[in-house]
Write a structure and sequence with these properties.
By secondary structure, the chain is an alpha+beta fold. It has 2 helices and 9 strands, in the order βββββββββαα. It folds into 3 domains: about 80 residues, no CATH class; about 50 residues, no CATH class; about 35 residues.
Length: about 170
């Protein structure tokens, strides 16, 4: 891809600025079916830099003063995403941004986090998976608990029935 850069040297400062020192431009496409221009298309150049911010007020247009730039589009960097981001059927390269940032995952597209190689889930990869219960361990604890409760109730009933027995009376502190 070849990009032609034209540098216009306008050596001046704001105190001595003249209308003739400014270069006004308008960005247009020769192929509007395959091109979309975003943002401001009118701008001006002054003091070795160009801007496309709003120009308010009157300015003089130069007649028959056109410049053509050849723009070649490079292949997308492998770390960038190449897809239609703005829903205008024209693909563009961009670096995905997640706001708020992914906590434990990787930002794979705008506001989309990938949690596949983590122990987390959720939109920001910050939620723990629920713990898996071991059913056999739950069953063993349930059976043991029921056995201990029944055994304790039997012991209490035995103490109440045989409270006049000498061995049980011997345990009395009074």
């Amino acid at each position: 891809m070849d990009i032609i850069i034209v540098i216009i040297d306008v050596e001046t400062n704001i105190d001595s600025i003249k209308l003739s020192d400014l270069i006004f431009f308008s960005v247009k496409s020769s192929d509007p079916k395959n091109t979309v221009l975003f943002g401001q298309i009118n701008g001006y150049c002054w003091d070795n830099s160009c801007t496309t911010s709003d120009i308010r007020g009157k300015y003089v247009q130069f007649n028959n003063s056109q410049a053509y730039f050849e723009v070649n589009i490079l292949k997308c960097n492998s770390s960038y995403i190449y897809q239609d981001k703005d829903n205008v059927n024209i693909k563009s390269c961009y670096n995905p941004v997640c706001i708020p940032a992914c906590v434990n995952g990787i930002c794979i597209n705008d506001n989309v986090c990938d949690c596949t190689n983590t122990k987390f889930k959720g939109n920001l990869c910050n939620e723990h998976y629920p713990l898996k219960r071991m059913k056999i361990l739950d069953l063993i604890i349930l059976i043991l608990s029921i056995f201990l409760i029944v055994f304790t109730i039997i012991l209490i009933i035995g103490v109440l029935l045989y409270h006049k027995h000498t061995i049980i009376k011997a345990g009395n502190f009074l």
